[in-house]
């Protein structure tokens, strides 16, 4: 009984946490343990190799942790040339959280050109909402009947509804669980 109780409680907490993540977006830590710094050459992967393993969505954030450095958001041309002279945005607070507010490419470089030249730069591609939903959805009966147009079967609204259900349902579930074992 105690273990079943714990499992149920865990499941409810997990559902609530998952719902919170779906709403708030996911935070990626750039460079994980080493953070945002001039590469030494001993890293297991480059910043871009790391980025290519992840799927970034609108609302997700990247967290840059650094000392005596900076994060510049730049154009693709300035990214390629490590040109730090006209950034779109510049952060120097050492703990930068950047939120992706649109699909497409984002270019980040160190504010120190030689650091950028050594590989302290990052391209992130944020997926378009249609890319996120389409592959996960099985063809609906309507689509099978030859209806190729119209909104995808799972809309953002119904996703939000599912999330609200979790948010509303998890506390109720926690409240009810003890009674199952009385
Ligand atoms: C950086 O960009 C500015 C403005 O676009 C340009 O004038 C300058 O020559 C560039 N510097 C380098 C090193 O490419």
Automatic annotation (TrEMBL):
Q: What is the protein name stated in its UniProt record?
A: Phytocyanin domain-containing protein
**Subcellular localization, as worded in the UniProt entry:** Cell membrane
Entry keywords, A to Z: Cell membrane, Disulfide bond, Glycoprotein, GPI-anchor, Lipoprotein, Membrane, Signal, Transmembrane, Transmembrane helix
Q: Which Gene3D superfamilies does its entry note?
A: Cupredoxins - blue copper proteins
For this UniProt entry, what's an example GO CC term? side of membrane
Membrane topology, as annotated: Lipid-anchor; GPI-anchor
* Annotated TM spans: 160-181
MF GO annotations: electron transfer activity
Quick one: signal sequence residues? 1-19
């Amino acid at each position: 009984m105690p273990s079943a109780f714990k499992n149920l409680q865990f499941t409810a907490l997990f559902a609530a946490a998952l719902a919170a993540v779906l709403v708030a977006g996911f935070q990626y830590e750039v460079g994980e343990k080493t953070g945002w710094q001039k590469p030494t050459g001993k890293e297991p992967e480059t910043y871009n190799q790391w980025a290519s393993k992840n799927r970034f969505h609108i609302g997700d954030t990247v967290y840059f942790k650094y000392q005596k450095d900076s994060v510049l958001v730049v154009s693709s041309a300035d990214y390629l040339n490590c040109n730090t002279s006209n950034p779109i945005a510049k952060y120097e607070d050492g703990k930068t959280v950047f939120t992706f507010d649109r699909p497409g490419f984002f270019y980040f470089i160190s504010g120190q050109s030689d650091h950028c030249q050594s590989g302290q730069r990052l391209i992130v591609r944020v997926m378009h909402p249609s890319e996120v939903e389409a592959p996960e959805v099985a063809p609906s009966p309507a689509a099978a009947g030859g209806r190729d147009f119209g909104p995808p079967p799972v809309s953002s609204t119904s996703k939000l509804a599912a999330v609200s259900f979790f948010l509303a349902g998890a506390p109720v579930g926690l409240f009810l669980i003890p009674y199952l074992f009385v």
